[in-house]
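This is your field. Pick holes in the following sequence-structure pair:
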Amino acid sequence: MGRENYISQNPHFAASALSRFTPSDFLSILESHGISYEEREEGRLFCNESSRQIADMLLAECDRAAVQFQLNCKISEIIKTDGFRILAAAEGLSGDPGRRSHRLDSASLVIATGGLSYPNLGASNFGYAVAKQFGLKVTRLTPALTPLRFNPEDAGVFGGLAGISIDSTVSYGRAKFRGNLLFTHNGISGPAILQISSYWDRKGSLTVDLLPALDIFALFLEKRHSKTLLPTILDRYLPKRFVRLWCDLHGASKPINQYSQHELDSVARSLHEWPLRADCTEGFNKAEVTLGGVDTDELSSRTMESRKVPGLYFLGEVIDVTGHLGGYNLHWAWASGHAAGQFV
């Protein structure tokens, strides 16, 4: 795990925090709490029992550090004093069942409020608003790790493939990811698409290698004297429903012995370099993370503290550091939190 697994306007920013809190450090905490885990596909780790164990572990660590929780508070104002004064409307504090104003004074203020993804779960622009209040720059915010939608015309063409998954390599610009491409009723999803969505800027088509593990041109040459239909050959390597549609779209349904070598090369290139148009993303409602955030030029990479406002810290997704799919964003939350925790 390193900065190559993260997207940021400053690709070096995350390196310091990541080097000081590694996956091994997190696993040590799990083991100290007796949480067993197993490694599954592509090195991903899962609790043997329930992910609830992670939440319970974090709560136990908070208890050990005598952390106090103030829930059901809506912050109305943050004032910079020698430290910070936070004004909030709160429900049920100190045994009071009613709603009343509450004031909290603190030497430091840590913003770890996440991004805009999944607003139905409570995500908001609060962290970015605090940054702007204190004069910190916020980069452009867009949905990332999100499914993509077709335009209505293409949705009509490909909608019948919903549920089909193909092991592919999907590219856009210099970014390239291998994984399943999943057709949905109105677009495309799956790990490869979620990954590339963080790089796609809506200015061009994706490029899909439908057979990343196979030199299909070499296979065509081996069978070029056969009377077997080209779709029948492809059926061995790709889902039949997809093959029929793809061959219809490309006019590639003849027996293979009726193609010239040049034509077979063209078909092979189309399979390895299939241009696939997307119209838009599914937006923040289905995005796993937010791309962009508090500009890293505004923060110390060692402490996560604001360079302009002493005592003000930003952690995790609210910063312009966005991880790849597969636990990288969670680890950035741990690593940036650990970095700030040494100084708050």
